[in-house]
Specification:
Elements: H1 7-28, H2 45-78, H3 94-123, E1 133-140, E2 143-148, E3 156-158, E4 166-170, E5 174-181, E6 186-190, E7 195-199, E8 205-210, E9 215-221, E10 233-239, H4 241-253
Parallel strand pairs: 1-5, 4-10
Antiparallel strand pairs: 1-2, 2-3, 5-8, 6-7, 6-9, 9-10
Helix pairs in contact: 1-2, 1-3, 2-3
């Protein structure tokens, strides 16, 4: 008749069971009711796609951090030296080695899968004849140029470090951005929308999103591009579709 496992054996297996449980939790839990962790929900079409990835990554990091701290503190207090007796020397422990190899692989594989899936959605761009609006963003040292292709005249707003430009977009309508750079590598970044894409000299990138909420949101360059990098600021203003058309007409007339 097989003997029952001792309490010590069960205790030694708890870390492995906890790691497996944490892994299953990370790969199956829903983030629909979790806080935005600094980001407002439903602010843009990109938020709708990437917010759950953002939340899941932080939850995974938190669980892994807590579990790692437990593994470090457990032997400190549980197996501290109590006398001159030398502890039992163990050459290897196959279940433990399999666990600490397999569990990180599963976590990384899950994060990679969801990252690749969301990145595909975020970077997907409609053909130029399908997108409702088309705006060209050109980065310069050290400001931005916004050209509104909606108007036949294609008016361009050029900012300066002293006077950051305003990027106006319509609420609830798809906008296709063409990103370029006149000099060095810059980063087109709207933190509230969870959007960032590089503007590269000699390379044209495209980005597309829909702003869902009326308001003003800061934007900036997030790649070190020169001595006035910190002044490469702009502001995104989301307005109603009718106000957007009024703005385009005003810019065209000016």
């Amino acid at each position: 008749m097989p003997s029952r496992p001792s309490a010590k054996a069960l205790l030694r297996g708890l870390p492995i069971l906890a790691a497996v449980g944490a892994t299953l939790t990370l790969t199956s839990c829903s983030t629909s009711n979790i806080s935005g962790m600094g980001f407002e929900k439903n602010l843009s079409s990109v938020n709708d796609t990437s917010l759950s990835l953002w939340q899941g990554a932080w939850i995974a990091a938190g669980v892994v951090g807590v579990f790692t701290a437990i593994l470090i503190l457990w032997p400190v207090f549980r197996h501290r030296r109590k006398g001159d007796e030398v502890p039992k020397q163990t050459q290897y422990n196959i279940p433990t080695e399999v666990a600490y190899t397999l569990i990180p692989f599963i976590i990384v594989a899950v994060l990679f899968y969801f990252t690749a899936k969301d990145e595909t959605k975020i970077t997907k761009v409609s053909p130029s004849n399908v997108a409702v609006h088309d705006i060209t963003v050109n980065a310069i040292q050290w400001s931005w140029q916004f050209t509104y292709k909606d108007s036949p005249a294609a008016p361009t707003i050029t900012g300066t470090p002293e006077k950051p430009p305003l990027l106006v977009v319509p609420q609830g309508e798809k906008v296709r951005f063409t990103l370029t750079s006149s000099d060095v590598v810059h980063g087109f970044w709207i933190p509230a929308f969870m959007i960032q894409m590089q503007t590269l000299p000699g390379v044209t990138n495209h980005l597309e999103f829909t702003a869902n909420k009326i308001g003003e949101f800061p934007g900036r360059c997030n790649i070190l591009c020169g001595r006035n990098h910190s002044q490469m600021l702009f502001k995104v203003k989301v307005v109603s579709p009718s106000d957007y058309q009024t703005y385009i007409s005003t810019v065209k007339a000016a």
